[in-house]
């Protein structure tokens, strides 16, 4: 949580995002191409600074960067590698006055470093032979800290330029320690994987010992996170358990107040409390986040699953297999190997539908109206009606392992790829009326041409074919085959009729390496330009489908996603010796998908890091901004399908409530009439 701006701070790829949950806006701390990844981060107690544990590209250097939240500028950097660290930092924490920072590296070379930040000076370090997964500095004494991890709990004191350890348990019982939190200057709560909570109390400044054990808090489920608050503490763990404990001011120290549980029963990995202690955000192991109103906990019922509200932030927990953008509605649809399909509204900036299936979703296509989806699975392909908050299957097709499916621009047909064949279906009668055969290997990408008169396809064998829907024939004169290239994506420019195809070399040849990426501009079977962006593609199997190209006709630009996480912008059509005129550092790992909205106002990128980014596109031609009319999504966003049975049930409920209200009104009228009669009798008497 970040103070004043109601912000939630979380890691997205190799960047840091600050999400304002009131206006649903994001701010970012962006890292450049020198940073390979961010391993961990921590926020200062006054919410002014954030420290990032970074792994740099050059020599795998380990570095800590401290940023100012308000300005997003770096104020301090610490090269941990110079201090002897050979493994990344996995845990770090500020002292309460922000003057000191303690960091812990991961196995096998586990070290604890204690820095004085204002002077960027290493005060002490110690090498240990046990795992540390969590470290914290006591808010009441910057020279006292605690580490937990594995089967080891240690309290450390900084004195005489050394870190001196102490074991509070003295081997009384074997535990696997998962987390801890300082409650005050005397007490600390420690969580274990066995499900017990340990209350550690310090009789004086130099000693601490176990005073109380709260056994099996969540029926033996592991506890993974603890956060202290003014009235006690909250903890979460396996099975989606979330419990509030209150301070008792006696020998019991704490007592359980209320316990709640997530409806999905996902493990809670981390908890963050807002500065005013009114709200809690829980992060689950499936990358989703939920909000809990702690201020209302006294009036809530225990074990009420509706207490948790999903947040927009969070994403799929496994690799994304397909993405599509709707034409008329402001929605982006993502399908992933975590067996879920998600529908995102990019104008309202909210997640609208999450549908979980029994099998992995391999491909997805959104109808131009935004009212239907086609989803490919391993053993079938299905069409769904997109309801207000659900998906309703309206037809299924005996099509196995479809990894590429596309609706025509008009929505009357859709094309599905089955290995090296392309099947054409009618979107309304669900009839398969065509089969396009000619590729000798897996078809990697397809694209409908202008007015839906044809389809362009690119195969793993290096062939780009153009097909006419009328007659279902291939235009042999427009074939382009480069056997040494394995294509991964192609796009068709509707204005010029040119094709952009992205591929990589299968083998090393003269002047080119194996895996070297090439961008080709093709027109009527002839290759006009061939650009080498200077990158080596990762080796994908022929089953992996990506879409790293998008053509913006208004700005005459082609967007190219790279294997290094960059987004390159080239002039389109490609000029001689084309070079990117703009580069953006976006993803940690490869860029897998690049898509444009229908009005070319937004560009979406999705990468190997499972992060989906949305960018505004400002078009400038010849030094002048291009004024364009934005697509009016609101006209279509208000239209949605509702099942008739749901509507009937709702009407029945309304009728029953009306009847109950009328009965209640009649009873009240009778009671009032009786009271009036009694008053009249009393007056007469």
Rg: 30 Å
Sheet with the most strands, sense and barrel status: 5 strands, antiparallel
What class do helices, strands and sheet pairing give? mainly beta
Indicate the overall shape: globular
Count of DSSP helices?
2
Overall residue-averaged pLDDT value? 90
Oligomer: single chain
Number of strands: 57
Unreliable spans: none
Strand content: over 45%
- Give the proportion of residues in helices: under 10%
The separation of the N and C termini measures 71 Å
Question: How would you characterize this protein structure?
Answer:
The protein has 685 residues and is mainly beta. Strands 40, 41, 42, 43 and 44 form a five-stranded antiparallel beta sheet that branches. Strands 4-5-6-7 form a four-stranded antiparallel beta sheet, with no helix packed on it. β14 (152-159) and β15 form a beta hairpin. The longest helix has 41 residues, at 644-684. The chain starts with 6 loop residues before the first strand and ends with a helix.
